Amino acid sequence: MPVLRSGSPHRSVRSRATAAGTLLATVSLLLGLPGTAGAAATGRAPEPRHPEQDWAGSQIAKHEGATSGVLPPLRSLTASVEGVDVSSHNGNVAWSTLWNSGVKFAYVKATESTSYTNPSFAQQYNGSYNSGMIRGSYHFATPDTSSGAAQANYFVDHGGGWSKDGKTLPGALDMEYNPYGSTCYGLSAAGLVNWMKDWFATYKARTGRDAVVYTSTSWWKQCTGNSSAFGSINPLWVPRYGSSVGELPAGWGFHTIWQYTSTGPTVGDHNSFNGAYDRLQALAND
To answer: Residue 164: how many CB atoms within 10 A of its CB?
Structure first.
């Protein structure tokens, strides 16, 4: 019977087999982690880990500060209409309470990336409509996880559609600080602008409407180089928690909606539409 000695071919074969098995197990483990395989294959970031914590203004408050109490917007010579925005963190919303307090429109978070839909969407979207409000839906953008077109299609397919019924606002794209990492999602200013162009073009092709853009002036300057590419096309919904709307991003001569507080009654986020009620109706019907 042959004797196995150190360095013999049998020992080498066994060592290589063991190493190969270990490598295969490691690869299998990595492929089994949620989002890891897709991210590695495409170079994209993994899907959002806590989308229920991301809503319009959630990152604005963290990075730019929030009011400690409600500061009602200063009324200009033009009329305004009171509104709110909500997401899953609000749960079931008391729409009749808001309606009776003078709230006449609402935006509801529908989606984030291409993996999340708001579990409270039906109660919030239909409930606001049934109370008498004009309502719309919005998408929380994560430009590092998938293309603008993919996210626009996902949004339209999961609550972001539009119909000319006089009660539905065009969809909104929420562009703000990244909750998961690099402020500008690891993209250059040109890359982010192109991503948004892709999203807006896809949304318009699907719905016939130019979507609203939600963004803060500070984030816009930092991450898009203060691009003026959208000001003549997409209505601006701007957050600033204080007594005036302040400076606007480049390209916009006026705002359409102002999110003026994150600590308002019943739901927190309150907004002011820049115009009379018939102009709000026109935005829904355009």
So the answer is: 11
